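mind reviewing this stuff:

——
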Amino acid sequence: MRNSTVRAVNRLTTRWAAAQAPADAGTVFTAAGVWPLLALLADGSGGPARTELAHALGIPAEAAAGAARELLAALAGVRGLQAATGLWAKAGLPLEEDWSAGLPAGARGTLTGDLDADAETLDAWASDRTGGLIERMPVLLDQETLLVLASALALRLRWIQPFHESCGEPSAGPWAGRPVRRLVRSTSLLDRVRVGHGPSGAITLLEVVGAAGVDVHLVLGEPGAPVGDTLATAIAAVTKALPTTGASLLPDGSPGPGLAVGSVAAYSPEPRLDIETVAFEVRSEHDLLDHARLFGLETAADGSHGHFPGISSKPLAIASARQSALARFHAEGFEAAAVTGVAVGCAGPGPRYRARRAEVRFDRPFGFLTVHRTSRLVLAAGWVADPDSP
């Protein structure tokens, strides 16, 4: 895949990481699932929204659609990774031919306006494209939804060297005394673990190698270091933007968080790295509009007028943008999935008139009459003291 696109997606990942919650809240997110959708929106946008989307993407808007297609095609070619996109438009919504023709291959469907049926269709797509890891489309639908654009990513990989699992209890730290699924293994490759330094001190990185060309890097920061700083430093390290030092060259002692290096009496001259971690599963729900500026959606979410003349002649604005994500790390391998959905609604000025409205509620005992229409004969009369229960 193109280096410039990879760098652009990684920059968005870094900025998103910096916006993460404090360390006591687990999270998982994927900018690789958001970036292509922003690119497709940028291709059909205009005015300030186009400028903001291009800034968030890190590439010119006119190059965005092509970059999105190339990225999605490259992701689909990664062993163990499934990548998909989908578009659902409300019947009768005119779509600009140039924009729709430039969309990557993927599902195409129609929003019927039946919210339950449409939600069922979108949920089925999300579940199918992620092998059941994400069961629901995260986007919010209402009667004003005209367009849904979605991406799905699902990764399943096996470790080249599995871990051994047992039950254990950490002796120190916030998990002390808590039973955990303990994962251990050893390797002679000391440089699987490396140390780097960022704004909030040192980080320790462990590379866990997958069998299909995809690896997982575990990162430990200094106690109390902000989540964003630790993740941003790790991203810089794994992308080679920040130098790191392997354990074979580190000084004796504790050169990084959670890491001890030294020389011991042994029966073999072969080096050994002992690894201990825990199995985990993290699920997160993200409302991208909570960070609208980060994703270039601040202006695009203003429903007072349209922002996407290249998508439709009908004025459109972003109504909802959300992501559901999952990561699962265990003795045999790793699974991750994310479904990102963007709902687009009709934009324009608010109501122009004032009108009278009335409201009535029968929320306490009431009576009723059955009346013949022509003769006005009362056929039955009654009183409701106890309404039916569901």
In short: The helical segments are 3-18, 31-43, 47-57, 64-76, 97-101, 115-129, 227-238.
